[in-house]
Amino acid sequence: MARKEDHIISLGVISKILIPFIQLYSYYVLAHGDLGPGGGFQGGVILGSSIILYVLAFGEEEGRKLVSQKFNDIFSSVGVLVYAGVGILCLIAGGAYLEYSKFPLDHHLAHHLGMYGVEIGVQITVSAVMTTLFFETARKDDETFESKKKKKMEPSNLKSS
Amino acid sequence: MRFLQHLPVLVILIPLISAVVIPVIGRVNRFACWIVSCVALFFSLSGSIYLLNKVANTGKVTYHLGGWKPPWGIEYSIDHLNGFVITVIAFIAFVVAFYAEKSVEHEIEERKIPAFYSIYMLLITGLMGIVITGDIFNLYVFLEISSLAGYALVALGKHRNALVASFNYLIFGTIAGTFILIGIGYIYMQTGTLNIADLRERLPEFYNSTVILTAFAFFTVGLCLKVALFPLHFWLPKVYNYSPSVVSSIMAAVGTKVGLYVMLRVMFTVFKVEFSVENVPIANILIIISSIAIVVGSILAIAQTKIKLMLAYSSIGQVGYIVLGATLTNQIAMTGSIIHILNHALMKGSLFLIVGCLVYKAGIERIDDLEGMGKRMPFTMAAFTVSGLSMIGVPLTVGFVSKWHIAIGALDAGMWYFVPVLIISSLLTAVYFWRIIEKIYFYEEPALLHEDRRVNININWDRREKRENFGDRRINLERRSEFKGTRRKNKEDRRRQLDKQWQPLEQWDEHGRWEVVKNDRRVSEEDRRQFMPDRRSLEGIGRRTRDYNLALIKRGEAPWTMLAPTLVLSGACIFFGIAAKIPVAIAEKAAAMLLR
Question: Which backbone phi and psi does B450 adopt, to 5 degrees?
Answer without folding.
Answer: -135, 120
